[in-house]
Amino acid sequence: MMAIPPLLVLGRPGTLLLRATPHGRVGRVVLIAARRGLRSRPARVALHPGFTIPLFLLSFYGLYLSDFAAWALAGWGGHVALEVTFLVAGVLFTAPVLSTDPLPRAQGHAGRAADMIVEMPLHAFFGVIVMMATRPLIGAFTHPPAAWGVDLVADQGVAGGLAWSYGELPSLVVLLIIFARWQRDDARRAQLADRIVDLHGNAELDAYNAYLQSLDRRPGAQA
């Protein structure tokens, strides 16, 4: 949920689909369906921060602090379903803040950084809750084989520490990528503005300089 989705999003699967799919016959149908699906209202909702951030946090707090996780982890199918849920939630959260593919809702660098800054402390707080818990939180893990010699509370404390430290590192890397892109785009816009000024001049600056020259030519200005 924390490490895999950024790698998938950085792979630009949307752009890869558009470039690799043939534009004839079946490929054309796939491309049209992909474009319509991406521009649809459900896609806009699914990729909106108002949906992705609560979903991302609900995957931790709602599952692990309720009885649902214990029920799901009791069987192989439930365990796999939880893994898929975590992966989907991670991709939905990461795509708006990291993707360069054409998304239905364009978000600026400031908004992307804000989403990460909101998520990071809430995710870290979940790890602290697990670390400080005095009893096992997941019923499915309360009966390990006696030969393992596992201290459930101590083992859970280690898991909370991993959720805190391991989870925050990918978030920090994503935040650094956002800031690097932000700085690069600002530098590119500044260079473009300088080129436009060099080619066409700056009307406002030229008018201001002409105004200063007119003041300098006024009688008594030298006094």
From TrEMBL:
<feature type="transmembrane region" description="Helical">
    <location>
        <begin position="76"/>
        <end position="99"/>
    </location>
</feature>
<feature type="transmembrane region" description="Helical">
    <location>
        <begin position="45"/>
        <end position="64"/>
    </location>
</feature>
<keyword id="KW-1003">Cell membrane</keyword>
<keyword id="KW-0472">Membrane</keyword>
<keyword id="KW-0812">Transmembrane</keyword>
<dbReference type="Pfam" id="PF09678">
    <property type="entry name" value="Caa3_CtaG"/>
</dbReference>
<dbReference type="GO" id="GO:0005886">
    <property type="term" value="C:plasma membrane"/>
</dbReference>
<keyword id="KW-1133">Transmembrane helix</keyword>
<dbReference type="InterPro" id="IPR019108">
    <property type="entry name" value="Caa3_assmbl_CtaG-rel"/>
</dbReference>
<feature type="transmembrane region" description="Helical">
    <location>
        <begin position="120"/>
        <end position="138"/>
    </location>
</feature>
<feature type="transmembrane region" description="Helical">
    <location>
        <begin position="158"/>
        <end position="179"/>
    </location>
</feature>
<protein>
    <submittedName>
        <fullName>Cytochrome c oxidase assembly protein</fullName>
    </submittedName>
</protein>
